[in-house]
Amino acid sequence: MSIVKVATNFNIDIEFAAPPFYRRLIAWVIDMVVLIFYVVVATKFLASINESLPATEDSNMTRWAITLLLILPFALYHVILEITMNGQSIGKKIMGIKVVSENGGRPSISQFIIRWLIRTSDYTLIIVIILLPYAFVFGPTVYWGIGGAMALLVTDLILVNTRKQQRLGDILAHTVLIDTKQKEKITDTVFLEVADTYVPQFPQIMQLSDRDINALKGIIDTARKHKDHNMAFMAAEKIKTHLKIDTHLEPEEFLEVLLKDYNYLSAN
């Protein structure tokens, strides 16, 4: 199983299981099938609309408006689903893959948007399919377009076989894909059930950012999974220094108390 190591804001690496290439490929194919099915249905619907509208200027404006509305679900498919489905599209959900931030937490909306805007693999294939029939008609210009599109596709294929298995969009958005089907699953949620009678010990925890809290949860999970006392100790010492906390709690216990404190204080 391939492992992806990501650096947290505490200068400590946490580990995630990376999905194998074939599962990423199948997830991508599933998403393409969904999109193609949508295009077929949308095209038939648009054709029926065009037949029912008279040939007037107002009708032409209506056709353009309907066409743009039908294009939106196709264009926004990945970014909308990944934002609303916690880093997963339909294909990723089926294949047990999800997008997380490089710090181990949930990506921000801006990160989802960046990786969506740089979806070179998907767009490249569409460009090649569109331009290929016109290659012999328009000559060198189309060949250059196809060549550039293929270069971007090859770039993504090379990048997903590097250490972090990030394509161009992931590199720019600072995101990675992880395997959610691993036996010892690393959960990315920072939320814990805390009793109403719970008394927080370290209210300074609220000084940390959401990224720091996500990183803290990843460190706790990784340290527990690998029984890595040194990792927990390093994180605990860094947080104590940053928040000016003095405690005799063991590192593992201290980090878990911090997470409980955060959950209680953020909900009250």
Question: Could you characterize what this model shows?
Answer:
It contains 11 helices and 4 strands. The protein has 2 domains: 3-179, no CATH class; 203-267. It has 268 residues and is mainly α. The two termini are 41 Å apart. The strands form 2 sheets. A two-stranded antiparallel ribbon has the order 1-2. A two-stranded antiparallel sheet has the order 3-4.
List the helices and strands and how they pair.
Layout (H helix, E strand, L loop, with lengths): L2 E5 L5 E5 L3 H32 L4 H28 L5 H6 L1 E5 L7 H9 L2 H12 L3 H4 L1 H20 L8 H6 L1 E5 L30 H17 L2 H15 L7 H17 L1
Antiparallel strand pairs: 1-2, 3-4
Helix pairs in contact: 1-2, 2-4, 5-7, 9-10, 9-11, 10-11
* Succession of helices and strands: EEHHHEHHHHHEHHH
Low-confidence blocks of residues: 183-188
- Tell me the total number of β-strands: 4
Total discrete domains: 2
Instruction: Write out the strand line-up for the largest beta sheet, numbering strands in chain order.
Output: 1-2
- Proportion of beta-strand residues: 5-15%
Name the overall outline. elongated
What does the radius of gyration come to? Answer: 24 Å
What is the residue-averaged pLDDT? 81
Helix content: 55-70%
Main β-sheet description: 2 strands, antiparallel
Number of alpha- plus pi-helical segments: 11
Task: Report, as a whole number of angstroms, the end-to-end distance.
Answer: 41 Å
